[in-house]
Write the structure tokens for this entry.
Amino acid sequence: MKDIRILLAGNPNVGKTTLFNSLCGVHQHTGNYPGVTVDIKEGNRQINDHSLIVSDLPGTYSLSAFTPDEQVARDALLTSNPDAVVQIIDATNIERNLFLTTQMMEIGIPMIIALNMSDLADEQGITIDAECLEKNLKIPVVRIVARTGEGIDTLVENIIRVTGQKTRATHKEIEYPHSVTNYIGEIGNYLSSHASLLGKLSPHYAAIRLMEGDEHLEKMLHDQGLVIPFIDKSDPAERDGIAEDILLARYRTAEEITTCAVKCTMGQVLPADLIDQVLTHRFYGIPIFLACMWFAFQVTFSASNPFLVGIEYIFGYFTELMNEVEMDPFIQSFLSDGVIGGVGSVFVFVPSIFVMFLLLSILEDTGYLARAAFVMDRLMHSIGLHGRSFIPFLIGFGCNVPAIMATRTLQSKADRIITIITIPFMSCAARLPVYVLFAGVFFGAAAGNVIFFLYVLGIFVAIVTALIFRRLVFKDEPSPFIMELPPYRKPSGFAAATHMWHKGREYLKRAGIVIFGGVLLVWALATLPAGVEYGSVDSLAGIIGQALHPVFAPLEFNWQLVVGLIFGFIAKEVVVGSLGTLYGGEEMLESSLAADPTLSPIIALAFMVFVLLYLPCVAALGVIRQEMGNWKWTGIAIGWGIFMAYIFAYLVLHIGSLFIGV
Amino acid sequence: MSNTTYPHKYLYGWTVIVTLTTFIAGFLSILEGARIITRFFILPDIPGGCILILISFIFATAVMKGRSDRPGWISFSYVASLLLLVFAGCSVLIEGGNVLTTIMEGEEEANILTILSPGFIWAGIIAIPLYLGVSKLLYKCSCRGECCE
């Protein structure tokens, strides 16, 4: 069996991960906006006597990396020495994609170009002469549709063929101006005598990178004591001029090849610029976005409610069955209060999670979420955040963990820290069960509005946080926002359903492992010490809740809510699971909450606000620590979250009571 | 551009009708929601009413643009009618879910006709011909420059 190591590279949002999924038969998350992949994902595929080891790189527009995710892609391309690089090119936008091609083909690694979204190009009336492209670039070109798997077999055949060739890859040479060629030759010759310092780079390519102003390479050589006469002694203006000449030569090459290979005729697609005129309108843009989100949450609550009632009925039936069977009271309590009561109360909300992921997936597939980021840019800039921060915010509505990782697409460290601190305020799917439960019990028909309010409040607190940190801690201006708007696409029912299923399955897995563990812990604490009344103030759970109750007394939370908050730190779903256990089972939970004299609509709202803001789960905290790189900022993120939760819950309790009544 | 020379004058005229319908549907939803009136078969819904009025403003912008900027009229009326239809579909899901929940919980007040009560549905039905017409025109706009002729 021969191993073939290939890298999937390309601009952001060209379908690298979709191809990766098709090649390796996996289900990594894809999205119709840039920046979904921020680190390298590996997979493999067996073909006859070959084993393809595929690495999916983050998207990058060039090898002059600025953001951490671009650096990851550049380092992999320059240092990992793969057998071949597959560059995925968006067939609807070839010229822009070819700029990266002109950089990559100079590395000297065998390349294959996969022209993805060929079907969209056809629809748009774009005719591509793949042979002309292949002939000009001296690189095999394969038309594919990664989404449907069309052309993947041909691509694999080409990968095996290209990597089987014994001779070094020779691609088209860029025609630089004479003066630039001289410099490259001179520096290349000089570097040839120090080739061991260059790692896997050829002296010729290293010379081009140095002339382009690759500070990373320059520093690496300097650190190894290598002094390059021209680089150190030349005038910065002269060097800038040469870098510009190289850049222009690359653009000229891309343009010439595109002119030869691409012809446009009248298409059959909606012109994005005309639709963007409305969806990104300076007055209508934000209200349209808010309207879409309002409907998303209304549908999430109302459309999933019948399923929720159905599942409640099933669990209720099992609880009754359990109570009828004669068994040891301890085991009976374990099964009915712990397993059915705790885990059941979390499982009940699975339909809401599924519906929400389905809707977010549809919004994402259409290309609208990227427009939402664009629309929010002005607002984000005015509060001192980078417009691109909105993408992690949107991802945060699903789960905070990938959202925090997505901040790697931000160039400035200050932007990253502020965004990481604010992401936990984006209400992740795990918090939804808490809202659906409490809003359903205490707000009835207005439950959808309450849930929408909580999501907007999360964004508002993120804005306040960003403003405070930008004004007091990071006083520099956020860097400008340039984002490519993806094309509009009809959402694919299959892709949306698949995405929904994978996200929902993750929730079910968590419910099965982490949440089950957490809920059983709460059940044990509610049962022990032996002989006490289950879930009473004399149980260990009651003692813990009572001990911490004074801290939460100004918020008027009872001890059961306090216990829920403490164990919600494991995972937010455990809040509902704990309450299910403490309030005597899933079937009883809603009626018990409604009948509890220590609770009221306004206390329920304050509790939901606290859950929204207080602490991310253990997994999110781990990623915050990893991305921040130190405990100082991790501690600040934790402390700030608890502080904001307390303040806002207090405000909601005391100001909200004027409107809702206690 | 006067309506007499307008190549799609009926569609343009229909935009005016949809604008008014959407605005009235939104206004009534808000009045019903605030319990100022209760005699119309329209869902009391203040946030929904505000969204309908927002969409009527987008339609109104389309009407105003249509006098001089034909692609502008097409894009604004296309997006507004698309939003209206999508939100009408969402309203059916929301009200359908609510009615089904009420029936499953065994409450007697379940009335299946309330599924048709959201203002979005009424305005959405009026907007269907406009959506079909302008989307056809918009497809022609993919060839920039010769747009919508």
In short: Residues 1-6, 143-149 of chain B have pLDDT under 50 and may be disordered. The interface with chain A takes residues 47, 51, 54, 57-58, 61, 71-72, 74-76, 78-80, 83, 86-87, 90, 93-98, 100-101, 104-105, 135, 138-139, 141-144, 147 of chain B (CB under 8 Å).
